[in-house]
Design a protein that fits this description.
This protein is an alpha/beta fold and about 240 residues long. It is built from 7 helices and 8 strands. Helices cover about 40% and strands about 15% of the residues.
Length: about 240
């Protein structure tokens, strides 16, 4: 039996990923910083709920102890993420971006992923086929964002894409450090979720496709890569 933990899984892409992996036979932990929302989501899906705030050391460490006591972990999906938003749900441009805003986004999107990965590494290293999936973004690609012919080029924000670019580097360095694991970053696409005020152009079912695929990567699967549903993306 494959046991999977998904952070930020009480709604959106995390919830849909949990649903799909449960259908594929995984035992799934719904990681949520809100205990009641996590419990309701887990109940709805037939998953297990675990209180997990990726920005809080004690919360993450307690979650790791819970999962360890239940038997261990094979797959970690670092899905929890936030985007900096201004008045009227607008994305602050470069002139409006502050260090405090950057720090808040990095705390979840980068430090949170590192915090969770670090805490669960001992469990993953005991698995016969450990997998880590970091949910990144097409906005993490320096190649795409610097190309005026791509939609990514028009995005005005600084904090969110910078955090996801950092997450891509974290992914690559972890993959090099742990060659026995399959560790990849994925771009779900511009999906309708609360993160973007449901302005996305595709469904959570479509967005979850690449997350689910990489969560099921076998020992011979790719590692240290950056992918969307169509294949590898340029860094």
């Amino acid at each position: 039996m494959t046991t999977t933990l998904i952070t930020g899984a009480n709604k959106g892409l995390g919830f849909e990923t949990a649903r799909r992996l449960l259908a594929a036979g995984h035992t799934v932990y719904i990681g949520s910083r809100d205990a009641e929302r996590g419990r309701r989501a887990a109940e709805l899906l037939g998953a297990r709920a675990v209180l997990l705030d990726v920005t809080d050391d004690a919360s993450v460490e307690a979650a790791a102890r819970t999962v360890e006591a239940d038997g261990g972990l094979d797959v970690l999906v670092n899905n929890a993420g936030i985007e900096s938003r201004g008045p009227g749900n607008s994305v602050p441009g470069a002139a409006e971006t502050t260090a405090a805003a950057m720090r808040e986004v990095f705390e979840t999107n980068v430090f949170g992923a590192v915090r969770v990965t670090h805490a669960f590494l001992p469990l993953l290293r005991r698995s016969p086929a450990p997998v880590v999936v970091n949910v990144s973004s097409g906005l993490a690609s320096l190649t795409l964002v610097s190309d005026a012919s791509t939609p990514a080029h028009a995005y005005p924000g600084v904090a969110y894409p910078a955090s996801k670019t950092a997450l891509n580097m974290v992914t690559l360095q972890y993959a090099k450090a742990f060659p026995a694991m399959r560790i990849n970053a994925v771009e779900p696409g511009f999906t309708k979720t609360d993160l973007n005020g449901n302005t996305g152009v595709q469904t959570v079912e479509q967005g979850a496709e690449i997350i689910v695929r990489m969560a099921q990567a076998g020992p011979d699967g790719p590692t240290g890569g950056y992918f969307d549903a169509e294949g590898p993306l340029p860094w």
